[in-house]
Amino acid sequence: MEFSLNDILSILSATVRLSTPLIFAAMAGIFSERSGVVDISLEGKLLAGAFAAASMAAVTGSAWLGLGAAILTGMMLSLVHGFASITHKGDQVISGVAINIVVAGLTVVLGMAWFHRSGQTPTLPSDARFMPIQLPGVDMLSNIPIIGDIYSKLISGHNLLVYIAFTCVAITYWILFKTRFGLRLRAVGENPKAVDTAGISVDFLRYRAVLIGGILTGIGGTYISIAQNASFIQNMSAGQGYIALAAMIFGKWKPIPAMFSCFLFGFLEALSMRLQGISIPFIGQVPVQLIQAAPYILTVILLAGFIGRATAPKADGIPYIKER
């Protein structure tokens, strides 16, 4: 089995597209867990954002209004998670799992009630979606061997949200490590008592962190339903929120390593789609089910301890109760 340059670029381009929602969710998880709040609800917020974006776009015909609806939905769910786990000091894992379960059922019920399509939204026209865009200089570089192909087929040709995802990685790094807010956020995830002693509200910092996560997961959900696809279908997030959590841990709660972890999962999924139906020498044709399960198998393997020591923020998952 041989791969040409076009095949390699096709796989890498698919890797970028498939990694995009993982990147949004992983950055959301980093903000939340750096502040000390475990956010298992990334999966539910991606799914809710996808449904809100597709529903609003179907009704209004505007992708931008769909994006706004998805962001508001993600923020509302983040407030619910914050109310349970920050204000009332509840179990953060249970709160996140509850949101995932409620969203999985509610999106189906609302989809059936609003659109009468078994939980799906109508197929969206191109005007109501974020479509691929061509970057400047594609025609000028098209005649240059290799470089022209890389620019036109790998760098250019993605939709706007893909480029926003990579911008978010840089912004996340800058906020966490170059700003006063980021310093306080990292401090509250390590030693909230010290932050509280300095006169800074621990709860307010954590609320801001989970709200940022809600914004990012809303954008990620928008990408899934009205950029990568043309409608919402049941459970279309397909575990990507959980994979993003694994990528965040694999990246040791740092934005850039987490992004490359997302690339790893995206690459494996892109490669699995490419290998479907292809016979491998000395092995034969690999079962489709095994290929489709490969990203999830990798998740289990990585989380089983093959990533070296991954130390979470010391206060991650621990509600802060202020001493009286």
Describe the fold and architecture.
The protein has 324 residues and is mostly helical. 68% of the residues lie in helices and 1% in strands. Strands 1-2 form a two-stranded antiparallel sheet. Helix 11 packs across helix 12. The longest helix has 30 residues. It is globular. The mean pLDDT is 86.
Quickly list its features.
324 residues, mainly alpha, ABC transporter involved in vitamin B12 uptake, BtuC, globular
Question: In terms of topology, how is this protein built?
Answer:
Elements: H1 5-34, H2 42-60, H3 63-87, H4 92-115, H5 138-141, H6 147-155, H7 160-178, H8 180-190, H9 192-197, H10 202-226, H11 240-250, H12 255-275, E1 279-280, E2 284-285, H13 288-303
Helix pairs in contact: 1-6, 1-7, 1-10, 1-11, 1-12, 2-3, 2-4, 2-10, 2-11, 3-4, 3-10, 7-8, 11-12, 11-13, 12-13
Provide the number of structural domains: 1
The name of the CATH architecture is Orthogonal Bundle
For the largest sheet, list the strands in their spatial order: 1-2
Q: Which of globular, elongated, flat, extended, rod-shaped describes the shape?
A: globular
What's the short story on this structure?
This protein is mostly helical and 324 residues long. It is 68% helix and 1% strand.
